[in-house]
Amino acid sequence: MDSDIKEEIPVHEEFILCCGVETQVLKCGPWTDLINDQSANRPKLLIFIITGNPGFSAFYAPFAKALYSSTKGQFPVWVISHAGHAMAPKGKKILTTSDDPNAQEIKDIYGLRGQVEHKLAFLRTHVPKEMKLVVIGHSIGCYISLQILKHGPELPIIRCFLLFPTIERMSESPNGKITTPLVCWFRYALYIPVYLLLKPWPVNIKSLMVRMCLRMMNLQSPSEFSLLNMLEPSCLVNVAYLASQEMMEVVKRDNETIKLLANQVLLLVNFNAVLDSAIESKADCIVNLNMFHRLFFLGLFLESILLSRALSKKTSICME
């Protein structure tokens, strides 16, 4: 029954030119243009999802539908791709809008800092200034979400949810130890074979390969949206480039920002699953357990800040 309801939820796919780059946006709900919608039925809040890396929005469609369903269809749920991670299919219309007149040119839009600026530019030009925002970040999307809170204080973000955050010491994680040499040292050597192998493939072969890969990973294919970006050389190059910057730049946790914005930030991690994964991984158990401890103490750090604020507030009321 639940799955039937989710299937009926409208999800609209758009490709928008944001900062000069094609950007895929999945919009869950009947609202597609919040800026020009002046009707009384316009929602007061938008749920905005920032993906991990790769930033393939289509994988988040079931999650967006579930969120939309859980709010009883009161609020739109949008998922944005990362700049350079999605290309519009042939014949697909790309929407253009006037950019923020105060926005500065993004020099390295495919890099980590550029992706933050890309999301800020989108929110400033495609979401009404008075509309409240709930931002949900996944993986590196959590780091981007925190940077949005830090550099976009004018945005009315009331909550920021961090799903399995990667906001510190990425290169020290089990996957990071494998990924770092690949994306930082051997990345350029991989570009030529990727282009030579994948560029000549026709669309139907790419589509077949994507379905096979998803089946091997036990992932359900969101068939209503194109996933050919998984095998598009330019998209894969941008994915690798972003990953290389993540490994080099996401090192120290930004405690000052977290402390400043603790009232808005909520950490969502299945600690039991993380601990089970750490114990089961014989290859790198110590590093996995260290990651578990860091996530656990990040949660305690947030709780302690909120508790101290609550106590100081209560004390000041008693003093009065």
Short synopsis of the structure:
With 320 residues, this protein is of the alpha/beta class. The protein is built from eleven helices and eight strands.
Number of helices: 11
Mean of pLDDT: 78
| Radius of gyration based on Cα positions | 21 Å
Which structural class should the secondary elements be placed in?
alpha/beta
Main β-sheet description? 8 strands, mixed
Shape, principal axes of CA atoms: globular
Question: How many strand segments?
Answer: 8
Q: What is the H-and-E element order?
A: HEEEHEEHEHEHHHHHEHH
CATH architecture of the domain at 2-169 and 252-268: 3-Layer(aba) Sandwich
Q: Tell me the name of the CATH class of the domain at 2-169 and 252-268.
A: Alpha Beta
Helix content: 40-55%
What is the topology, as strand order, of the major beta sheet?
5-1-2-4-3-6-7-8
Poorly predicted runs of 5 or more residues: 270-289, 314-320
CATH third-tier fold name of the domain at 2-169 and 252-268: Rossmann fold
Subcellular location: Endoplasmic reticulum; Lipid droplet
Protein name: Lipid droplet-associated hydrolase
Main location: endoplasmic reticulum
GO molecular function, one term: sterol ester esterase activity
